[in-house]
Structures are given as structure tokens and as C-alpha cells.
Automatic annotation (TrEMBL):
<feature type="domain" description="Major facilitator superfamily (MFS) profile">
    <location>
        <begin position="237"/>
        <end position="420"/>
    </location>
</feature>
<dbReference type="InterPro" id="IPR020846">
    <property type="entry name" value="MFS_dom"/>
</dbReference>
<feature type="transmembrane region" description="Helical">
    <location>
        <begin position="149"/>
        <end position="169"/>
    </location>
</feature>
<feature type="transmembrane region" description="Helical">
    <location>
        <begin position="52"/>
        <end position="72"/>
    </location>
</feature>
<feature type="transmembrane region" description="Helical">
    <location>
        <begin position="361"/>
        <end position="384"/>
    </location>
</feature>
<keyword id="KW-0472">Membrane</keyword>
<protein>
    <submittedName>
        <fullName>MFS transporter</fullName>
    </submittedName>
</protein>
<dbReference type="InterPro" id="IPR036259">
    <property type="entry name" value="MFS_trans_sf"/>
</dbReference>
<feature type="transmembrane region" description="Helical">
    <location>
        <begin position="238"/>
        <end position="259"/>
    </location>
</feature>
<feature type="transmembrane region" description="Helical">
    <location>
        <begin position="390"/>
        <end position="408"/>
    </location>
</feature>
<keyword id="KW-0813">Transport</keyword>
<keyword id="KW-0812">Transmembrane</keyword>
<keyword id="KW-1133">Transmembrane helix</keyword>
<dbReference type="InterPro" id="IPR024671">
    <property type="entry name" value="Atg22-like"/>
</dbReference>
<feature type="transmembrane region" description="Helical">
    <location>
        <begin position="108"/>
        <end position="128"/>
    </location>
</feature>
<feature type="transmembrane region" description="Helical">
    <location>
        <begin position="302"/>
        <end position="321"/>
    </location>
</feature>
<feature type="transmembrane region" description="Helical">
    <location>
        <begin position="175"/>
        <end position="195"/>
    </location>
</feature>
Length: 420
């Protein structure tokens, strides 16, 4: 990373390198394919298995939505942010490894363990995101956040390539394991990668902005939450942004989590899906960094609008998908914006909130994101089941991006921005 970034900034960004393996292998690629295979062998139809995965994503994110603000508020007290981060990080990484030990003929326990991994992954991200205010100054947040996403895309390709290689070699019977065991090895690789490369974050990132502890932390946390709601006018711009974020990030997250199942329903084979997803990660890395650079030139809001526009095109184009080439085009469109819109949303929010309440507000940030992640998969799942066609489910997400874009117009620029 060179001398441009501090040790704390580098270590914080490196966590994206660590946990992004989960995003691609568990959320997007190998796990959905493995689950679809297990469910199919158990007699579950393709449409229903996609719907069940959507419901599972909704349940996992609903759990986080319920506990996120309270955990975030407690973690604002001195010395607690790192402890909560470690607890959820360990839950997620160890549960990811345990996916490999679920019997290969049972799909329901697989979804239950997947729920635990998702709670751990997203729970750790509440505190990870909030650490941005501790490691970077406001004028550097866009660049640091975007570069973190860029590193994540680059880093995730390494365990992804290794996992794909094992799966393909198993399919061609060039190594003495079956396809099911190859997928399970991918789960183990993901958990170990996540665990190992989180060490710099654990060693070098510390909580700087905090609130002094009270005798009763839980009661005090509820009082602070209540106080924040009473002063909602004071933070009106923050909550308008959260409302905008609620809608557009819903569409982003749903497309990421359900893309593989959707491609599978279109009849695209596993090998093609894995290759597409790998190339998507490679393309997404420079574009995430580019979004950070362009935000400094054109403003964060303009680049967020650019991302929203691209996703509207993605939803419309997805409705007409019919070939593997179409899926490739769609994936490349997603690659241009998925990292950028997430990175800039994170840094925009970090610049809007009071630093000493960063965990509390990032708890809200995540609850809005998680509630959105409940609505999106449910919308897709219900539309898919009602119409019998996954394309209608993806197309229905257009409205979320449109509403999000309209609300974003009402949010003022951060103080650190000089360009509107």
C-alpha cells in the first residue's frame, strides 16, 4: 500500500481483503450452487429453492436489524467496539468452516448454519464500518473506504481461484474427491482466509472516539438511543440519507445475494457461473477505487447517482436475459458499480454522523441496510413464486433504486466536500 496510508488505515482496509472471500464464495458463488444442488437432490424445485434461500437471507438480516442499534450503542462506550467486532468475526468465520461438516443430503440444516455465518459476517461489519472514523480523517474517508473495497475484490479472487480449481479438478476426476467435498473445502478455505487476514485489524486498529462508560451500560444505551430519537431533528439529514440508503442498497444487496441462483434458474452451468463471478471480482476492484477518485472530483452524491443509474439498467436488462452472453454483460455492468456505491455510501455516512456516536449511528446504518435486505429478497422471492419466473423478481427491484435516488436528492453534502 506504500507510505501514503497509515498502519491503522492499511490494517482497516485489509479487513476487506479478509472478509470479502465470504462475500463471493459464501454469499454469491459456491454456497448457493452447492445449496441448489443439495436441495435439488432432495426433491425441491428450482423456483422453491431460490425462494427458500431468499427467505433465509431475509431471516438472517432481520436478526441483525433487531440487535444492531443496541449493540452499536453499547459499543460506543470506551473499549467495547473491538470486543464486539471480535465476537461477531469469530462467530462468522467459525460457522463458515462448520458449513463443511453439515451432511450433504440435508438442505435445511445447511440454511440454518448459513444464517449464523451471515449474522456473524454482517454483525462484524457494523463495528468494522464504524472504525472508519477512528482510522481516517474526513477528507480521506472516501478514498480509504473505496480502496478498502478495491482490496476486498482483489483479495477475494485468491481463495476464489483456489476454490474453483479444486471444484473443477474434482468434477473432472483429476483429484480423488467428489464435487460435494470440493465445495466443502471451499467453505473451509473461506473461513481460514477470513480468520487469518483479520489479524492486522486486531493488532493495529483501536477505538479513538468513544463515550465514557456508565454503571449500567445496557440501561444507558437505551437512554442514549431514546435521546437520539428525541433529537431526530438535529440529525434529520442523517435519517433522510438512511431512508435513501434503505431503498437503493436493498436492490444492490439483493442482486449480489441472489445473482447465482438467478443465473442457475436461467440454465447457466456451474462452471460458467463461477468464471463470470471471478471476472466480476477482478473488474470490480479498479472500479471501486475509481469511484473514490471520481467522488473527489465530482462529489459523492453524483457518483452515488451514477451507481443507482447503472443498477436500474441492470434490473431492466436482467428481465430480458436469455443467454450466457447476456449474463456476462449483466455481470460486467454490476462490476462497474457494486463496490463503488457501497464504499461511497459508507464514507458519506461516516462524514455525516457525530464521531463519538459512530457505533450508534452505524448501528442504524446497518439496521436500515438489514431491513432493506429483508424486503428485497422477500420481494424477489414472492414475485418469483407468484409469476413462476425469476426475471419478474429482479425487474421489480427497479422501484427501489428510483425511490432511493429521489430521497438522496434531499440529503445535504458532507462538510468535507467542496463540490456539490
Amino acid at each position: 500500500m506504500g507510505r501514503k496510508y497509515s498502519k491503522a488505515e492499511n490494517s482497516w482496509m485489509f479487513y476487506d481483503w479478509a472478509n470479502s472471500a465470504y462475500s463471493i464464495i459464501i454469499t454469491t458463488a459456491v454456497f448457493p450452487l452447492y445449496y441448489k444442488s443439495v436441495a435439488s437432490e432432495a426433491g425441491v424445485s428450482a423456483t422453491n429453492s431460490t425462494a427458500y434461500l431468499g427467505y433465509t437471507v431475509a431471516i438472517a438480516t432481520f436478526i441483525l436489524a433487531m440487535i444492531g442499534p443496541i449493540l452499536g450503542t453499547i459499543a460506543d462506550y470506551k473499549g467495547l467496539k473491538k470486543k464486539f467486532f471480535i465476537a461477531f468475526f469469530l462467530m462468522g468465520s467459525l460457522a463458515t468452516i462448520s458449513l463443511a461438516f453439515v451432511p450433504g443430503d440435508t438442505w435445511l440444516p445447511l440454511l440454518i448454519i448459513y444464517t449464523i455465518t451471515a449474522v456473524g459476517f454482517h454483525g462484524a461489519n457494523i463495528f468494522y464500518d464504524a472504525f472508519l472514523v477512528d482510522v481516517a480523517k474526513e477528507e480521506r474517508m472516501d478514498e480509504v473506504s473505496a480502496r478498502g473495497f478495491g482490496l476486498g475484490y482483489i483479495g477475494s479472487t485468491i481463495p476464489f481461484i483456489l476454490s474453483i480449481a479444486i471444484i473443477l479438478l474434482a468434477q473432472k476426476e483429476l483429484i480423488p474427491i467428489g464435487a460435494s467435498m470440493a465445495s466443502k473445502m471451499a467453505f473451509i478455505i473461506t473461513g481460514i482466509w477470513w480468520f487469518t487476514f483479520t489479524i492486522p485489524m486486531l493488532k493495529n486498529v483501536v477505538q479513538i472516539h468513544s463515550i465514557e462508560r456508565e454503571p449500567n451500560l445496557i440501561a444507558g444505551s437505551f437512554r442514549r438511543l431514546g435521546g437520539t430519537f428525541k433529537e431526530i431533528r438535529k440529525y434529520r439529514h442523517v435519517f433522510i440519507f438512511l431512508l435513501a440508503y434503505f431503498f437503493y442498497i436493498d436492490g444492490v444487496g439483493t442482486i449480489i445475494s441472489m445473482s447465482t441462483s438467478y443465473g442457475k434458474d436461467l440454465g447457466i452451468n456451474d462452471v460458467s457461473l463461477l468464471i463470470v463471478l471471478f471476472v466480476t471480482q477482478v473488474v470490480a476492484a479498479p472500479f471501486a477505487i475509481l469511484y473514490g477518485k471520481l467522488a473527489q472530483k465530482f462529489s459523492i452524491k453524483i457518483m452515488l447517482y451514477a451507481g443507482i443509474f447503472v443498477y436500474i439498467i441492470v434490473c431492466i436488462y436482467a428481465f430480458f436475459l436469455s443467454t450466457t452472453l447476456d449474463f456476462w454483460i449483466l455481470a460486467m455492468l454490476v462490476a462497474t458499480s457494486q463496490g463503488g456505491i457501497q464504499a461511497l455510501s459508507r464514507s458519506y455516512f461516516a462524514q455525516l454522523v457525530p464521531k463519538e456516536k459512530s457505533n450508534e449511528f452505524f448501528g442504524f446504518y446497518n439496521i436500515f441496510g438489514k431491513f432493506a435486505a429483508v424486503m428485497g429478497p422477500l420481494l424477489l422471492a414472492l414475485t418469483t413464486q407468484l409469476t413462476g419466473n425469476s426475471a419478474y423478481g429482479v425487474f421489480s427491484l427497479v422501484i427501489l433504486f428510483i425511490i432511493g435516488g429521489i430521497l438522496l436528492k434531499m440529503v445535504p453534502k458532507p462538510v468535507s466536500e467542496n463540490v456539490v
